[in-house]
Input
Amino acid sequence: MSQFNEYSGVYSLLLTPFKEDLSIDYDIYERYVEWQASKKPQHLFAVCGSSEMAEMTLDEREKLARLAVKNANGVSVFATANLEPSWDGQVEEVKRMEQTGVDGLVFVTKGYGKDDDRLVKYITDLCALTKLPVMLYEFPGYKNHLMSGKAYGRLVETGRVVSIKDTTSTIDGIKDKIAYQGDSNVLQANMPYLYDSFVAGARGVVATPTTCGAHLFVKIWDEVCRGDFEAAKHTHEHIILLDYAIDNGFNATAKYLVNLQGVPMNWINRGGTVLAPQKLRALQVWYEWAKSEGIM
Output
């Protein structure tokens, strides 16, 4: 379909494996990045909410981005680059992230969502610091994170913004941005409305279940691209099942499903989520069923 471009498609999120002392297990991370890239998404999203970016130092985030690039096997990599609290810190962060070799940077809205003029100026000033393409992210880690369609449209008109991860979790919210997307790409993050958003004109997906089920999203995207919306509707049903399986305890649950698929990742996380034995058993039962049905 002609409206799709190199920044459309599936952005697979990357989890971060931790050791028991909560230090990052970089060896397992590299294996995991290779595994994610093998699913053939259009992009990998390192240093994201699902990777627990808000719980990391800049040095850790930079190393994760660098290792993602190293192990992506040609899949493009985007990484968040404006988490530092001060403006000077963000200027340094953008430079360091750019030097990791990533193909694009991600800027979060930083809580400016209720002030269009301030948000547009803030993102425009960040864009001036880099020549890389930019994806916007309505990261819920900062309150007032949602931006208006008009503000998004103004940023698209600058020619620097190629996509946005919409987290409104409403079909009206994503349609508001689709109305202003122009040549950019509005990406859906809410699974109940994934199919509806594709019908409405969304041009990709960047969502938590991609961390452990990227193949389903590659499948639905291929179906959308060839115009087979009946098949896409059926795949969406499988995605909803996966979404429900990981919802209670994410991202620990996603890590455990990755483990069940052959990457030796434990479910330790810095957010403090603990999975009860009953939850682990439920995930095992669900995964074995999903595998027998060809879903996983």
